[in-house]
């Protein structure tokens, strides 16, 4: 196990739509893993968190 391992992420939320009936907002979430310069899109915070945990070696 490497002690000085760093995992940095940039997380961006972009409003994709608002449901007319409920007013619920739908978000497009882009997560960038800085060290690998890898961008991935998600529709939920839970999916984004799972991705970050996997990239950080926590899953």
TrEMBL record:
Lineage of origin: Bacteria, Bacillati, Bacillota, Bacilli, Bacillales
Origin: domain of life: Bacteria
Name by which UniProt lists this protein: Uncharacterized protein
């Amino acid at each position: 196990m490497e002690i000085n391992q760093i995992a940095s992420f940039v997380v961006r939320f972009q409003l994709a739509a608002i449901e007319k009936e409920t007013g619920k907002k739908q978000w497009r979430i882009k997560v960038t893993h800085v060290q690998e310069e890898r961008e991935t899109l998600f529709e939920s915070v839970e999916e984004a968190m799972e991705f970050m945990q996997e990239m950080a070696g926590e899953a």
